[in-house]
Here is the input.
Amino acid sequence: MADLSTTYLGLALRNPLIVSSCGLANSLENIKKMEDAGAAAIVLKSIFEEQIVFEADKFIDSSDNSLSAMKKGLNDILQNRSYDYMEAMDYMTNFAKEHTLKEYLDFIKQAKETVKIPLIASINCVSAYDWSFFAKRIQQAGADALELNIFILPSDINKTASDYDEIYRKIIADVKKFVSIPVSLKLSYYSSNLVNSFIALSNSGIAGMVLFNKPYNPDINIDKIEISAGKIFSSSDDYFRTLRWTAILSGRVGCDLAASTGVHNYETAVKLLLAGSNAIQLASVLYEKGIDEIKTILDGLNKWMDAHNFKTIEEFRGKLSQINIENPAVLERVQFMKSYAKIV
Ligand SMILES: Cc1cc2nc3c(=O)[nH]c(=O)nc-3n(C[C@H](O)[C@H](O)[C@H](O)COP(=O)(O)O)c2cc1C
Here is the structure.
């Protein structure tokens, strides 16, 4: 049996598999099942910054002048959004109505009493608008780390790439003022200068980056001729983008990397570790096959390591990252030319 232990965000993990933020982690029963199935850590379902602003008065002194600014902030946030607004509203109506922030904090406390593995709280945010004080509550409730799911679609024609980078930097700086637990960023691949932006972000005080978030995607219903919701779950082929950028960024960033999107089996987990991920996050596969699939993936990883005589994860992690391979161009262009040249 190989030693699967590793570290992520400075946390000691018994193996690299982490349950990604999703509704499955909303019950203590499931959280226990995840731990029993072998999950090394769990990212809790996200709360939205809008909800924090919305309920801010319950958490801060009402004589505080910043309260009215926060309330105004909420209106600004809600009115100035299109895409993000839809996602936030969906969340606010379907989840947040029944789950207050106090319940979120209580849930963290109860979950900490239920399992021994690290629990990573999650906040979905798009701005640094006066909500970051709440990160401290999350730390006080016992979360071992905080993942910020920052989904910014760079679709505003009046903003430059550096305007967008500045939003990320501001969010990180604001949150870091309130917490000492590790903070990670869950990012989308929409960036005009991904490598440089991500390397700069990785050196701005965060402990890790999750590549990548899988946002709600719009689709089009051609019968009704209207915009519809795209598929929520990933498929087992959806990992290629994560693989490429993990391999390109590994060894160049100043923080850990977690791979997310499309990990449905041990083979993909192995590939992403070879590309240089420190941890692997899973969501869709657990909805489709059940929480026990974590065991199957761990078993496969173990057997693969034995077959290749790897005793520890570090022996092979990043072996195929761009800085470690002989021909770095295969991750960019040459591979494409070679394989397509044979077909067309
Ligand atoms: C039903 C569902 C709910 C999700 N909720 C959240 C969430 O609250 N916060 C978040 O950061 N990601 C959320 N995600 C995204 C997942 O954490 C993950 O990044 C994405 O599904 C890609 O991973 P996968 O291919 O393993 O599913 C959700 C995904 C699903 C399927």
Residues 81-86 have pLDDT under 50 and may be disordered.
